[in-house]
Amino acid sequence: MAKYQKYAEYKDSGIEFLGEVPEHWDIASVRRYLVDHRQGYYTTESYVDEGLKLLRITDLSDLGEIDTQNCPMVKETESTDLFKLKKGDVVFARTGGAGSFGVITKKYDDLIYASYLIRFRFMSAKLEPNYLRYLCLSDSFQLSVKQNIHGGVNQNIHAEDIKNTIISVPTLLEQNQIATFLDFQSEKINSLITKQEKLIELLKEKRQAVISHAVTKGLNPDVVMKDSGVEWLGQVPEHWQLVPLKYLCTFSGGGTPTKDNLSYWTDGNIPWVSPKDMKTFWISETQDYITEKAVKESSTNIVEQNSLLMVVRSGILQRTIPIAINTVPVTMNQDMKALKFGKRVLVEYIANLIHGNTAQLLLEWSKEGATVESIEHEYLANSLIPVPSLKEQEEITQVIAKKMKVYAELTEKAELQITLLQERRTALISSAVTGKINVTNWQHPNKNNEATTELGA
Q1: What does the alpha-carbon distance between residue 304 and residue 325 come to, in Å, rounded to a whole number?
Q2: Are 428 and 439 in contact (CB under 8 A)?
Q3: Shortest CA distance to 156 belongs to which of 100, 102, 112?
């Protein structure tokens, strides 16, 4: 922040999170600027096709903005008038994401807010709405609010805690200038973040395409091909075999020892895999462990290491097939299957086959019209698998691993750039709304000069 000017005089705010603020800025609790607050609208009636939009916690963004596109609609009544949102209002999540917020920065005629939100209405002559959004995004405000969040799993925050939060407030003229400055800087940073996010998506698509081609077409571009007879596979190398999966592996299921018997879970040392553990390619540790007694007396079984673990029943199967290879013996729950392969195929080759063709296999293995997302065992077992020689499988696996390392490094760099840009944005916001930098003389660059203007200039 060294490139920015500072104010001529500062004073100690007396608040650790705020530190020093410009001498002429007001230091006060939120309640000084508050008109009133109200908990959101509660209804047990069904949603309707036409009516008022109901803003929920899920409609709040990480940047304090709101998105009304997916808001359900409720019937308009006399009581709903009390819950209509106005420009300048701030809604806070009081539970289920406590501390999340959204600022209403434009006029709505048909927007009310749900019961898990608290609406705060401020003096419009004292606080500019867009500045207020940045104020609520600042580190000092967020830290102050978060220290007042109560509860464990079901976190909540009370209106009084927010009302007692100390803020520093400049003049309206300065608020508008600060908001304009932050709008400009945030737009530039957000644009850079978007580019990095698109790069990550392109890398993901490229990675999947590379895997898919290698495990279905092989590594030799001049090899003679044949029709596989399988729509999603298309042509495969002529010398490859096509074998039903059931002839390549054995299947086993899992189970959950009753939680009522503590001897099944207390001091357990046997990994118990559930869908929540399926976030890595290799699994050696799990969130839960069970005892040998649990294995003997329940429906779960020991799965040998180097098996392919697969989630076969979960809502996540709408978009992906979670798989992993266990490096140690494990047990697993009833929503999973383990595939133990013989000498004809490498487990890593099959894992790559699934990773590279997830969308197609979801259609092949799922039952059409099923009410619960699941992989049907019959479809899974009878699906034709392209099987090259073990030597080719090893070569394909090694090439994929090498290329995936490159893509992983590029993705990691892009993710790091996103993190740094987000930190830069947060630092700018926090510095501007607490007066650590003085932007009163900042001027919006002319469009002709924008291309040569350095970020932050």
Answers
A1: 10
A2: no
A3: 100
Cα distance between residue 37 and residue 56, in whole Å: 17
Contact in structure between 76 and 51 (CB atoms under 8 Å): yes
Q: Is pLDDT of 336 > 50?
A: yes
Give the ranges where 10-158 is alpha helix by DSSP (H): 129-137, 139-146
Average pLDDT over residues 256-271: 94
Q: Which amino acid is at 35?
A: V
**Residue 163 phi/psi, 5° resolution?**
-65, -30
Does residue 198 surpass a pLDDT of 60?
A: yes
Distance CA 62, CA 397 (A): 40
pLDDT tens-digit readout, 5-17: 999 999 999 988 8
Strands, E assignment, 284-442: 288-290, 308-311, 323-326, 331-332, 336-341, 384-387
255-260 contact pairs (CB < 8 A, 24+): 255/298, 255/299, 255/300, 255/301, 255/333, 255/334, 256/298, 256/299, 256/300, 256/333, 256/334, 257/290, 257/294, 257/297, 257/298, 257/300, 258/298
Distance separating alpha carbons of residues 11 and 414, to the nearest angstrom: 40
Two structure tokens written together for 303: 């799965």
Whether residue 371 is predicted with pLDDT greater than 70 in this model: the reply is no
Half-sphere exposure of 200 (CA within 13 A, CB side): 14
Cα 41 from Cα 116, distance rounded (Å): 8
pLDDT(339) > 70: yes
Average pLDDT over residues 76-91: 93
Are β-strands 10-12 and 20-22 bridged in parallel, bridged antiparallel, or unpaired? antiparallel
Instruction: For 308-327, write each residue's pLDDT tens digit.
Output: 999 999 988 988 999 999 99
Q: How many CB atoms lie within 10 A of CB 407?
A: 16
pLDDT at residue 455, rounded to an integer: 47
End-to-end CA distance of the chain: 10
Q: Strand ranges (DSSP E) for 108-170? A: 111-113, 117-122, 166-169
Q: How far apart are CA 310 and CA 319, in angstroms?
A: 14
pLDDT in tens, 210-232: 999 999 999 999 999 999 999 99
Separation between Cα atoms, residue 450 and residue 447, nearest integer Å: 5
- What is residue 260's DSSP assignment? T
Q: Residues 6 or more apart from 420 whose CB is under 8 A from it?
A: none
pLDDT tens, 92-129?
988 766 668 999 999 999 999 999 999 999 998 899 99
**What is the structure's pLDDT at 36?**
93
Residue 216 DSSP SS3? helix
Contact 242, 256 (CB under 8 A): no
pLDDT at 84: 95
